[in-house]
Amino acid sequence: MRVSYRILKRFLPELSLRPEEVAEVFLNQGFVVEEMLSARDLFCYPLLAGTLVEAHHEGLLTRCTVKLGEHTFQVLVHTSGVPETGSRVLVGFEDHIPLFLPVRGERAREVFDFLLPLPPFLEEGDDVYEALIGDDVVFEVEVTANRGDCLSILGLARELAAHCDIPLVLPRMHCAEKPIHHGFRLENEAPHLCPLYTGRYVTAMTVQPSPFWIAKELILMGMRPINNVVDITNLVMLEMGQPLHAFDAARIRGNLVRVREAEEGERLVTLDGEERILRKGMLLIADADRPIALAGVMGGRDTEVGPKTREIFLEAAFFDRVAVRRTARALGMRTEASARFERGVDPLGVMQAASRALALLEEMGGEVASGWLVSGQPPFTAWEISVPWELVVQRLSCEVPQKEGIRILERLGFQVAQETATLRVRVPSWRPDVREPIDVVEEVGRVYGYGKIRSSFPSFPFDPGNVPREESLENRIRAHLVHRGLYEVVTLSFVEGEGVNVLGSKREECVAVLNPLSQEHAVLRPSLFLSLFEVVRTNARRGRRSRGFFEVGKVFFRKEGNFREEKHLGIILWNVPQPALWKEDPLDLLTLKGFLEEIEELAGAGCGAVCHGRVFPVFEEDGAFVVSSPEEGAEPLGWGGKVLPAFLRRHDVEGEVYYLEIRLEGLAAWGQDRPARDFALPAFPAVSRDISVVVDASTPWAFVASLVAEEAKRSCMALEEFVLFDVFSGDPLPPGKKGFAFRLVFRAPDRTLEDEEVGRWVQKLKESLKQTGRVVLREEMILSHE
């Protein structure tokens, strides 16, 4: 919305703020002033008063001679735009070329629409800028979508009046009415889209250029003058925020104005000369035979006010904002009128704006017929909001005097009734955005001044900065796996229907897609394995030798007839053959177990035992495992293993593939109650001892580890940790046997351990292992063979 300082003063005669201070007030009350322009920037310079000395009519055009001092200029003007001979007219210059509509950016043309008449008190050659425009300032104000009332001079002036506590003066709205019979009638066939439509008849009009003050204000507010009738409707729209439209009444067929919805394919040539093909349901203004305007958007060419117009039908209406928006967007049109209807106009201001236009038309010589043509009622029902004053003080964090708050609301147009500590606020018709008590609080705060509100930190009933534990754990796992050299991938949740067979899943346990786009996307994945293995296949086909990928994603399945959805972590390692002389550690099951232990540590606790077991048939029998849950009887936390070589060959994948899948929700739930551990750096040295044992090939390391941990705890040993560093089988061990070699690390927090003490602990651990009958010390096996 563009408005000038002097136009605001027309509504606020007592305004004493400087233009810079006005801009600051707008900003403090929620309206950004995007730009401040000097009025000089909008007009050509210099602006001088010339004299129309001759006018030779040549049909629709008139050849005019304009005298300016010793210079005379010949110019062709539309006959309807020629003032009386001897009138002062406006002449501007751009690069020494005379312009008769001297707006910045206007080009010289062969034919001008009109010569702009000036007040008769000016002498030929007078500086018009200094005499009639002055040192004015134009504000380009950004109005938010909820403040349609401020797309008007009245709305912005009301904001300033509330801040400065000065009276708001409305322009003249009274006109003399005459008993003129015209025979016009209204028919509203779409009251749901147009709840109020009004019309007035004006005759004896002479269409001519507008007085300079109207043309000047339109130019300052960004609109181009056309003629006195159209300029008045545009000026009132800018003043009051209510779009109006003037029809040439003589061109309305049947003296009938109809508000109706368009039929599919109807056509209308609008004022811009474009033929519009209308869709069914668009809101139209029509006469007895045809459409004559797009309601709330633009008028039609057939009823345009022109030089021969003598009778006017003035429209003022309230159109549904959604209907106007849909029509404007569908036709690719955006007008000043549609912008205001889309944001909402004042339903009680419709006839007030029409009265203002009628008063100006009367000043132009028009005769206003008595009586309104009205269809419908203003769609407004007053509502009240109960506002405890304590809420105002609490939300604004400052002691606003209650009387001051009431005065602010009343200056903004609200009606306020005080009931002890509560205000009953009646909202004015032009503020549909005020619906809740907090909206009223905002109104008080805006005008009272945000600068008076004390700064304070907001209080929250929760800590908004903390990420949920599950999400934090996922982020840590992601970062760690990337740091360890794996690539994170994101794959689709859909897999091939036949693919789930390799997982051993039954059809009734899977979740099928009702309308799959293809057979490759027929089932929601029950495991991340199929998605990650497809990534390995793609890399293999394209010759890429990536060693590992991971994904955090959801899996879907049915259990006991119910649909289940869980978030899992999948890790796939590809021990791809490397080029000759390429030195890199091979990947195997121990590497996979290392990732499992690292994830356990990130979760803040260890999982249950890692036991032999094959979850998917695609894993090798001897190379598959299950990670049990620490909670007895609960679902396993994870599983994995080495993929069958036959499966890899069938899919053209070389090398070896290892896979691990973990239920993240189960992992997070089990570890969430474990507090983080902190410890001091050790002050005394550690003592290490190695033990090598032989067990049956089916005995897991977890069995030996649990025996060591239990005995160390029972005997109060200073055992800091024990680490498996080798698993071996074959000669010289007997068939069906395997060996574990592990290191024990002892450390006391308060002293240096002695060898004898450590030796006793190691011997006790060996005795404890032998007592089970399932563990043989390798040193004893070697001695027995000797």
Q: Which range does the strand content fall in? A: 25-35%
Helix count from the secondary structure assignment = 20
Q: Which shape, going by the Cα principal axes? A: elongated
Compute the number of strand runs.
39
Look at the structure and give the mean pLDDT: 89
Mind explaining what this structure looks like?
- With 786 residues, this protein is an alpha+beta fold.
- Helix content is 27%, strand content 28%.
- The protein is built from 20 helices and 39 strands.
- The protein has a seven-stranded mixed sheet with strand order 26-30-31-35-34-33-32, with helices on both faces. A six-stranded mixed sheet has the order 7-6-3-4-5-8, with no helix packed on it.
- Strand 17 (283-286) and strand 18 (291-294) form a beta hairpin.
- Helix 6 runs antiparallel to helix 9 (350-363) and helix 10 (389-396) crosses helix 12 (437-448).
- The longest helix has 17 residues, at 755-771.
- The mean pLDDT is 89.
